[in-house]
Amino acid sequence: MARIVGAVATSHIPLIGKAIAMGWQNEPQWKSFFDSYAPVHEWLRSVRPDVAIVVYNDHGLNFFLDKMPTFAVGAAPEYVNDDEGWGLPVVRPFPGHQELSWHLIESLVADEFDITTCQEMQVDHGFAVPMALLWGTDARAVKTVPIVLNTVQFPLPSPARCHKLGEAIGRAVASFPDDLRVVVLGTGGLSHQLEGERAGFINKPFDLMCCDAIAHDVQPLLKYSSRDLVREAGSQGVELLAWLVMHGAMSRSMKQKHFAYHGAVSNTAAAVMLLAP
Amino acid sequence: MDTTPSSHDDIPGTIVFDGHQAMKAYALNKMCFSFNDAANREAFKRDEDAYCGKFHISPAQRDAIKRRDVLALVRDGGNIYYLAKWAGILGLNVQQVGALQRGITEEAFRAMLKQESA
Q1: Annotated catalytic, A12?
Q2: CB within 8 A of A126, min separation 6: which ones?
C-alpha cells in the first residue's frame, strides 16, 4: 500500500530559482537560506520518497482566465516547465506518476471533489522551485503528481475546503495498492502583496502564527475565509492555501521536525517546514 | 476607464481580483498572458500600439500602458500575475513594480520589506 511518509512546506519565490540557476547557494546573502534546507535533504535521503504530490498555484503559465479551475490534478507522463515571460530560466521536464494520478482523480471525485483533470499541464516556478530546492538536479528521480489551486481569481476555495481536499488526498494515497513512499509538498507564501498601494505588505506575526498553527493546531486557520487571508497575509499571501492542503493530507501523528524562517527574500519572507512521524 | 471598486474594497490599498475586476480587462490580461512567448514580447517591443490593437485594448488602458502606470491598470482590472509579464518586457522587477504603485523609490521599498520581515 502507498503511504505518506511526510510533508514539506516551502516558499516558491522565483528569485530562489534564479539563485539556483546562477549557483549563488554559497553567496553570503544566500548561504543561510540554502543551508536551512539541509535537514530536509537529510530526511529525504533517509526516507527516499518514490513520488512527490506537489500542491501549488499556477501564476499564469498553464492556466489563463479563459478556463480557471478551482482545483486541478495532473495526469500526464511528464510535466514541462516553460518561459513565464520575465526571465526565469526554463528547467527540464519532470516525470509524472500517471497511475497514482488517476487513482487520486477517481478517489477525489468519488469523495465529491469535482476536480479538473489535466493530461497536459505546464508547471511553473510554484512547482519547479520547490523541486529544485528539495532534490536539486536529482529531482527527476522522483515521480510527481501536481495539484493546482486557483489563487488568482476570486472566488477562491476556503481554507477549510482546502484542508478537506488534503484529507481526501490522504485517503486516496492510503488506498493505492502499490507500495509507494509519498511525500506531500505545499508550496508558496508567506505573506506578500504585489499589487495596489499596499504592494510590499508583509505581516510577520501572522506568518509565524500560521506556521505555528500548521505545526501544532491547524483549527484556528480553518475559521478564516480566503478574503480574511488577503487582509492578513496580502493578495498573494493566500498561497497559504497550499500549505493547508498539505496539512490535510498528512497523518495527524506527524510532528514538526524542522522549521526555518528568513526575512524578506524578494517581496516575501521565506520559510521551510518538515513534518514527519 | 472603469474605476468602480471591486466588490471586496474594504481592504485598504488592495484591489481583490474578482469577477467584477476580471470583466473590465479580459483583453488586457489576455494580451499580457501572450507575453509568455518571446516572439510576442518582441512584437510588442517593435510596435506597442499595433500589438495593443491586435488585442482590442481600450484607449484608457493603452494610455496607461504608455505611461507605465501599473496602478491604473490594476484598478482597471489588470491582474498582477499577467501584468508582471508586461513589466518584465520593460525590465522592471517586482520591487520596482511595487515601488511604482506606492509612489516611492525602489530603495525605500526594499528597506520597507526588510523592516517588515525583520
Answers
A1: no
A2: A12, A56, A57, A58, A59, A187, A188, A239
